[in-house]
């Protein structure tokens, strides 16, 4: 009951508001083209006819929510999952490189963070570069990564995953540096009174203390990974994947396809973030976290 | 009283100056102190008098800038490396991701004791602080007093003869505090450990100690050392006896003489 009142009601009211606004703008944005069509066909539409037509154009400037919903439903549930028009198939292609890149990125992020926390020179030398790396537009870097890797014979899943890695290691590094440095002075003093070695302090204090930070940053990283995978599909002329669907939709002005690919991407992102969140909560519970 | 037994803690001309942004701060100056085996010594004084700093110097958590300190006949650093003392902080400082038994077992794990030995010592020390039955609980499931008892158990688990306690009951309410004071005295009587106890409560210091070291600030120094004439057996109502009140009055005088209430 509480979750219903605290979460469902606010979220659905916002959603309802968005849908209403979306319809309003669909009508406004599609009207000029519809007027144009009517003029050429020598038709005069009443206001209500005009609204009906603007919401059912085959290639609208802004597709109406129900057009996207129908397209999404057809391409998700009514097509065989092996068809390259199936959103499930395309989402899976993107998901696989997202997960590979996310795994690489998390591992890389953790390794860099451990280095930064333990080696003072790395802290000073590496951190500025890491921050700078994230200011470079990924759209500019992505084609180069794909081209360079293709030149050395690496094609397919790995180059796309590399772009996901590039985007996802950063939040993990920042989160883990913070997490590994999160133990209180008192806890560090305590380990000092036991004459604990650096390794013991690391494994028995810093690592467990960093776990909540790790999962928080992994939530950001997994969403960034998905963006990376989609961006990675754009310059490669990839034949499958959510990025490929977006690109194909743009080529052929299939605005409804673009929007339903976007919805598919959001659904995948939401699921990924949710899975990481649940994993985080399970781990927290397993190490004695206080139920919220 | 300390004449025959070798000194557990011996400080001579001990000084510590912190370099801060506002210039040097003399936290300890010219501290001479000898603590014998089996003593219960309280350090009392207003904040800034260096009582916690002194305890941290004994524990090798701070390095003195002048004078000498020895613990168990060694330097403070050697004593720490030999795990000569258990330290109890102001807060329980339990690891929230560990159960009570695994918190108490933390120093034993670090020392590399066998699992069987660890289990045996955990059981014994949890018995000692009356926490049997709470082994599998996490810290947040225990009251503040119980958490602090668990942290005392952790300090006792590796059988150091010296126990350093930095206002361990400062954050607890008076009822719990009385109870823990009683239990601590009983524990001290049974184990014959040497205890250094920092507090800012006069009744607590007088009730617990065989000796009370009165300290005053700016610079942090020892202004008086008062031997307690109370017997080793101390029921809580000893605090109403004239003898107890006389010692408390001397402590209060000592604090006042250190100009601690002036500013």
N- and C-termini, Cα separation of chain A? 16 Å
Task: Find the CATH superfamily of the largest domain in chain B.
Answer: P-loop containing nucleotide triphosphate hydrolases
What are the secondary-structure elements of chain A, in order, as H or E? HHHHHHHHHHH
What's the mean pLDDT score of chain B?
A: 89
Strand order across the largest sheet of chain B: 6-7-8-3-9-10
The number of distinct β-strands of chain A equals 0
Keywords:
heterodimer; A: 292 residues; mainly alpha; MetI-like fold; 2 domains; 11 helices; elongated; B: 263 residues; alpha/beta; Rossmann fold; 6-stranded mixed sheet; 4-stranded antiparallel sheet; 9 helices; 26% strand
Quick gist of this model?
The complex is a heterodimer of chains A (292) and B (263). Chain A has 292 residues and is mostly helical.
Notes on the protein architecture:
The complex is a heterodimer of chains A (292) and B (263). Chain A has 292 residues and is mostly helical. Helix content of chain A is 79%, strand content 0%. Chain A has eleven helices and no strands. The longest helix of chain A is centred in the first third of the chain and has 39 residues. Chain A is elongated and about 90 Å long. With 263 residues, chain B is of the alpha/beta class. Chain B has two domains: 175 residues, Rossmann fold (3-Layer(aba) Sandwich); 64 residues, no CATH class. Helix content of chain B is 35%, strand content 26%. In chain B, the strands form two sheets. Chain B has a six-stranded mixed β-sheet, with helices on both faces. A four-stranded antiparallel β-sheet of chain B has the order 2-1-4-5. In chain B, helix 5 crosses helix 6 and helix 8 crosses helix 9. The chains are: A mainly alpha (292), B alpha/beta (263). Chains A and B meet through helix 8 and helix 9 of A and strand 6 and helix 4 of B.
